[in-house]
Amino acid sequence: MTDACLTFRDLTLGYGSHPAVHHLNGVVRKGSLTAIVGANGSGKSTLMKGVVGVLKPMAGTAVKAGGARIAYLPQQSELDRTFPARVVDLVSLGLWPKRGLLGRFTADDRHAVSRALAAVGLEGFEKRGIDTLSGGQLQRALFARVLVQDAEIILLDEPFNAIDAKTVVDLVALIKRWHGENRTVMVAVHDLDLVRAHFPETLLLARRPVAWGLTAETLKPDNMLKARRFEEAWLDDAPWCETDEHAHGDGHDHAHDHHSKVA
Amino acid sequence: MIYDYLVAPFVEFGFMQRALAGSLMLSAGACPVGVFLMLRRMSLAGDAMAHAILPGAAAGFLLYGLEILPMTIGGLIAGVIVALGAGAVSRFTIQKEDASMAAFYLISLALGVLIVSLRGSSVDLMHVLFGTVLALNDEALTLIATIAGTTLLLLAVFWRALVAECLDPLFLRSVSRLGTPVHFIFLGLVVLNLVGGFQALGTLLSVGLMMLPAAAARFWTTRVEPMCALALAIGFASCVAGLLMSYHYSLPSGPAIILSAGVVYLASILAGPRGLLRSRVRHQRHRTA
User: Fold this and answer.
1) Do residue A80 and residue B176 have CB atoms under 8 angstroms apart?
2) Are B90 and B96 in contact (CB under 8 A)?
3) Which ipTM score applies to this complex?
4) B167–A80: do the CB atoms touch at under 8 Å?
5) Looking at the complex, does the CB of residue A45 fall below 8 Å from at least one CB of chain B?
6) Which among A221, A163, A153, A210 is positioned nearest to A187, based on CA atoms?
7) Does B153 touch chain A (CB under 8 A)?
8) Is B281 in the A-facing interface, judged by CB distances under 8 Å?
9) Do residues B49 and B191 touch, judged by C-beta distance below 8 A?
10) For labeling, which of A95, A119, A255, B271 is most exposed (least CB within 10 Å)?
11) Are B202 and B258 in contact (CB under 8 A)?
12) pTM for the whole thing?
């Protein structure tokens, strides 16, 4: 058995009393490359926030292997593009895990930033203001920041949204390079052709795990149909979840919809 | 001639030296804080906080008269309560900071006016609202120096976190737990500098020295560090110019300083590289790439 890098035990994440990711169990192996697939509102971003720790679980746990660092690329909307910063400033944020609040940036650090910019095809962009970048260029810069973070676990939340085809090809190549370096990579993706072509494993979400395993298996038509039938909106009067088959870590109750038409 | 006009007032009169020292030290702390306030789209929050410290300062004034320490401590307490309350509501509930800040400062302002009206006269109110930069005593100067020093030290220590929190808050939360503490430390610095300014400029005008140089600097540069340096320079220049005008033309010093900064702001809108005129200029020629 290969090492577990992330272990989910009955993980339930959500907002208010409503779960957005419901009773997720399973292991993400070290060095695996997993696509997270599902409609908008199916819990992909929520799961990533739970893994990173910016969202506390309502029940269950998400445990990462000891000492593993996480690089997390949220969806672009979280970034203030009007902030007066240069590309090099944005990418240098990736040095935080290494240098923290007060550590000085060394010549090596600056080289690492330059190499990362070169790797994403942004040589010569160091001194450009981030407000002058196109959507694709900004995404390349954010990938450079992930490179600089040099983390064991890499989480990318819908990195290909509104990105042109050539940039997608380049960024997928980077993801494969990370996979080759035995890093654990999870990527939320909408393009199923892309998933089938490049991602060995897939987790299919519909506010709860529908299927998880080899991509070809997971994306079989019956699984896709199950996922499509989920109730995107939560029900205000959904009964409380008190399942016997799931051992709750802290006995935390949470509403979920049992009205889902899923078989 | 130039010496008589620009230098002599500061050389010959002790009160002018004190006013200059006090206002320059105020600028040193307030101007960089203003830059971050502006970049976080909280420019009006500074104004709100200036109103919020009124009841504390007024309570100190009512109990101990025109004494700096009680008024400062009172102002600090009121400011911290409003900053923490508004900050907590915006961070932990659905309400955004503009609404929670407005709610808290309005309550605070009403309390302040109520307290002043309990015993004070309109002259007292004028003191609290508009300050007296030409009558700074040793106590006030020491306080302002302490506040400026604390501000610059904390800004230097938390600089990287403050920039990250403004630029990409979710990223900061993913690599560090400093996001929330830095937000509150920053709000604390805003309160501290407004309180420091109210002896000299009054509660209403102290926010001017914080925001106007920052807003002006935004038109000239595209990076944070030079923006802070430029805001400082504009703040210093406004203090010198304001005090000189106050001296030569018998104008009230606080408004003269803020109006000087206002002139720089208006000029920056027009002339700055990112201002009105330069960004409207149609380029006759264009490059190949």
Assistant:
1) no
2) yes
3) 0.84
4) yes
5) no
6) A153
7) no
8) no
9) yes
10) B271
11) no
12) 0.85
